[in-house]
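Example for tutorial group B:
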């Protein structure tokens, strides 16, 4: 199976890394994700990854409960770095050459984010995990994904979630909710659909980068998405 795309940005939810646990990282789930990514890499793509940190800490929630927003966001950035290092280890175990680049310098464990170095890694067949958010408070990891996708000139953003696409209502609470197959950026913004925050959507729209939302828990979905099969909802494609 051949990939439809040359360079892809994969956005992973930190919450997903919990697997069957209440918090932290489920090693079994991590290896499952690593194998899914390896299948994608075997299709010859250049892959960048952005991970959230919600399995350890959510800056927005902490700020709502009284913590200083700037401090909360920086703490959340550190959580994404922990997830990035864990994923790097899992990818190494399945034979995928990986580098972690952080927006906050942490040279003992990862490289600082340098665009030209990231592009060099891609040319050598390495996966690059972009950690530490944008390096600035008040920005989500969704915005980080859109920003890094624009910087590396990615063909598409794949947002891996726990559901098989975007619905007109919460499919967990409403069994009659309808899944969209395709949406425009303006549809998402106008209807307030929970895909990405408005900053991330605007960045993607301005740079003409489509977004596909799909279910990571369904084995083989990433590979199918890379091949151009319909496995979720595509925005702006």
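The residue assignment follows.
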């Amino acid at each position: 199976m051949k990939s439809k795309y040359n360079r892809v940005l994969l956005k992973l939810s930190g919450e997903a890394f919990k697997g069957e646990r209440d918090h932290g990282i489920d090693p079994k789930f991590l290896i499952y994700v690593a194998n899914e990514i390896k299948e994608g890499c075997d299709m010859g793509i250049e892959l960048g990854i952005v991970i959230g940190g919600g399995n350890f800490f959510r800056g927005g929630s902490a700020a709502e409960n009284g913590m200083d927003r700037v401090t909360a966001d920086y703490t959340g950035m550190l959580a994404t770095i922990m997830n990035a290092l864990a994923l790097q280890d899992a990818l190494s175990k399945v034979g995928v050459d990986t580098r972690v680049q952080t927006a906050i310098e942490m040279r003992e464990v990862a490289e600082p984010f340098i665009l030209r170095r990231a592009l060099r890694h891609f040319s050598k067949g390495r996966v690059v995990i972009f950690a530490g958010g944008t390096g600035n408070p008040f920005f989500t990891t969704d915005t980080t994904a859109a920003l890094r996708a624009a910087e590396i000139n990615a063909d598409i953003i794949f947002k891996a979630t726990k559901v098989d696409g975007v619905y007109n209502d919460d499919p967990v609470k409403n069994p009659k909710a309808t899944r969209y197959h395709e949406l425009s950026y303006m549809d998402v913004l106008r209807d307030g659909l929970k895909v990405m925050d408005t900053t991330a959507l605007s960045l993607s729209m301005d740079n003409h980068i489509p977004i596909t939302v799909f279910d990571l828990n369904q084995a083989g979905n990433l590979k199918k998405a890379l091949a151009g099969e319909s496995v979720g909802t595509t925005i702006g494609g």
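The chain has eight helices and eleven strands. Compare this with the pattern of hydrophobic and polar residues in the output above.
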